[in-house]
Design goal:
Helix content is 80%, strand content 0%. The protein has 207 residues and is mostly helical. The N and C termini lie far apart (73 Å). It comes from Sphaerotilus montanus. InterPro entries: DUF4126.
């Protein structure tokens, strides 16, 4: 059962929608719209379009496509790269829509927050999956993908029933994602330096 929603609760929902869009945009669209359509949650006016049958059908179809695309090593990274231009603006738009058009300042703040969190989640996901794809076995890739499949609806549900707890969980998730992204980027830079030194040494030896 959803709690009465004030501005802090709505901002938590907006933040969660933005963050989750960076991981599984179509799951966000479908799960939120379906929950509204079935009457499980009262969607704000700006999100009512998600529960329209046509939108539910389209988002459900794309959710199915993304579910399988995200399980194919290599193709998942291409899918993530392609969706760089979709997930981040969509996360910002969904976050802003929580407040509708009546509270412009809050809508703008939500858009900035949602877009930033979508970008954080998207970059962390893309970097992590690209690193995992260097492994020849597919099981780690599948495990990460299934973890994302479970995390997004769980966080969406928590944001509606316990928005403040969802904000705490979201804060922890963002810190972990930022730390993981920086660690992976440092690892990649070190790997590239090693490769450059190796090829430089080989070139010197040939000369």
């Amino acid at each position: 059962m959803a709690l009465p929603l004030g501005t802090p609760e709505l901002m938590s929902i907006a933040a969660t929608l933005g963050w989750a869009s960076g991981l599984r945009l179509y799951a966000v669209l479908f799960c939120t719209g379906l929950a509204g359509y079935l009457g499980w949650i009262p969607l704000p006016g700006g999100l009512l379009w998600l529960q329209q049958p046509v939108v539910l059908g389209a988002s459900g179809l794309m959710l199915s496509a993304e579910f399988f695309a995200d399980k194919i090593p290599g193709f998942d990274s291409f899918w993530d790269l392609l969706h760089t231009f979709v997930r981040i603006p969509a996360g910002a738009a969904l976050a802003a829509a929580v407040f509708g058009g009546d509270e412009g300042s809050w809508s703008m703040a939500a858009a900035v927050l949602g877009g930033s969190l979508a970008a954080t989640a998207h970059v962390a996901k893309t970097t992590t999956r690209a690193a995992v794809n260097t492994s020849p076995e597919p099981f780690s890739n599948w495990g990460l993908s299934l973890a994302g499949d479970a995390a997004v609806p769980a966080m969406l549900w928590l944001s509606w029933v316990q928005p403040l707890w969802a904000a705490v969980g979201l804060g922890v998730a963002v810190v972990v994602m930022l730390g993981l992204t920086f660690w992976l980027l440092r690892h990649v830079r070190a790997l590239l330096r090693g490769l450059v030194q190796r090829f430089s040494g080989a070139s010197t030896a040939l000369d």
